[in-house]
Specification:
alpha/beta, 9-stranded parallel sheet, 14 strands
């Protein structure tokens, strides 16, 4: 921990408040100063006036660069780091052929520990300072992940995957083992420094009703923990859920039946929801993790951001590594833009940035500590270089000097 004051000069952009209009409710200093003490932000503002209280302090000068809040990745898989972007196929076949064989390796504690260090390193290297992460089914792998994040003082939400059927036998736990191991991990790691726990049934098909009952009991016992799983990613998956849970009206109702839908639930994907599911997600204040890179890579479908807005469902951006093809949230935002374009939706850069900073923090109930650069929050921020190569230099200069031409409506 840095005990001394640290001063950073750069252009600064962030969203100080929770908003439905990030294109308007942002703060930008073309020449700004960010000051931290003990890793907490104590001052922020224009350089010319903010420096007056710190005139004798040394300044780290990032003039020409841009400081933004650290990125928040709301859904990705720690054990899939080494198999990122493995060749094609649809979701269920991809799990069987790539994911499950790779996850078996995490039964070895030393291997899990080494990969945890690589995983955290990749997050930081790509500007991600907070993530909601699926571990493997192995308790020791989840311990290794939390230990790696703890060493780096990272804000991490994570959980041991629970699955007791429809997966390889050596990756299965049981309802009782999942309950006991999850309980132990919650008591060890939840709210330990900057670490938080998420109860993590992989998805409905890989958990028996008995296991889902146990997960619901954990939610009742530990109401401050998160819940993370998958929902309506793939048509084949949805049909399978309907066969496995014939008494439930739709996919979301499975999770509702077992008490797994609330304001701390994070549902990955949500591509093929019916109107009842949209309304219930809104009613219960749950979060959708929008995973555009993964959805495009596996051909799962296109997320309907306008429908989420219509129903008032909170959306956070996510890489979904390893079906997501990059840890880089800026690249993920680029895929979100393309995905939205294919739905006839224009996703602005500011809205995209909001969905991986203040917007995500709001959905995770963490705006008092991360997601913005407000005084009192953790000093989790990223320094971006808008002119890091020749092409970006050209692009940046062009953006600042572009003349906007209004075309007649009949030409458009």
């Amino acid at each position: 921990m840095h005990k001394e004051l640290q001063l950073f000069r750069a252009s600064i952009l962030h969203f100080p408040i929770v908003t439905e209009a990030p294109e308007h409710d942002y703060v930008f200093y073309s020449d700004g100063l960010l000051v931290t003490r003990n890793d907490k932000i104590i001052a922020l503002g224009p350089y010319s006036t903010t420096i007056e209280g710190f005139s004798n302090e040394q300044v780290v000068d990032y003039t020409g660069k841009l400081i933004v809040p650290g990125f928040i990745d709301s859904h990705l898989h720690f054990p899939q780091t080494e198999m990122i972007a493995s060749f094609g196929e649809q979701l269920l076949q991809w799990l069987e052929n790539y994911t499950f064989p790779t996850e078996k390796k995490f039964s070895a504690p030393q291997y899990a520990s080494e990969m945890a260090d690589v995983f955290i390193e990749q997050l930081y290297a790509n500007g991600t300072t907070t993530a909601a992460v699926f571990s493997s089914v192995h308790q020791q792998a989840t311990d290794a992940l939390f230990e790696a994040a703890y060493k780096q003082k990272m804000c991490l939400i994570a959980g041991k995957v629970c699955m007791d059927r429809h997966c390889p036998e050596d990756l299965q736990d049981t309802a009782e083992i999942a309950y006991q191991e999850t309980k132990g991990l919650i008591e060890k790691w939840h709210s330990n420094d900057r670490l938080l726990y998420a109860i993590t049934p992989r998805f409905a098909p890989t958990s028996s009703e008995q296991q889902l009952v146990k997960m619901g009991k954990l939610v009742e016992r530990y109401p401050s923990v998160y819940i993370q799983t998958h929902l309506s990613e793939n048509h084949q998956e949805i049909n399978w859920v309907n066969e496995l849970f014939p008494d439930c009206s739709d996919y979301l109702s499975v999770y509702e039946k077992f008490g797994l839908v609330n304001e701390r639930s994070i549902f990955g994907h949500c591509l093929h929801l019916n109107d009842r599911e949209w309304q219930r997600l809104s009613d219960l204040n749950a979060t959708i993790a929008f995973c555009p890179s993964s959805n495009l890579f596996l051909g799962s479908g296109l997320f309907d951001l306008d429908k989420a807005k219509k129903y008032g469902v909170g959306v956070a951006l996510a890489s979904d590594v390893g079906a997501g093809t990059s840890f880089n949230m800026l690249r993920t935002m680029g895929d979100a833009y393309k995905s939205c374009q294919l739905k006839g939706i224009a996703l602005s850069p500011l809205e995209g940035l909001y969905m991986m900073s203040q917007g995500s923090a709001h959905q995770l109930k963490l705006t008092d500590t991360i997601g913005n650069l407000n005084i009192g929050t953790h000093g989790d921020f990223v320094v971006l270089d808008p002119a890091f190569n020749k092409l970006s230099q050209l692009r940046t200069a062009s953006a600042y000097n572009r003349e906007v031409i209004e075309l007649p409506q009949d030409i458009i």
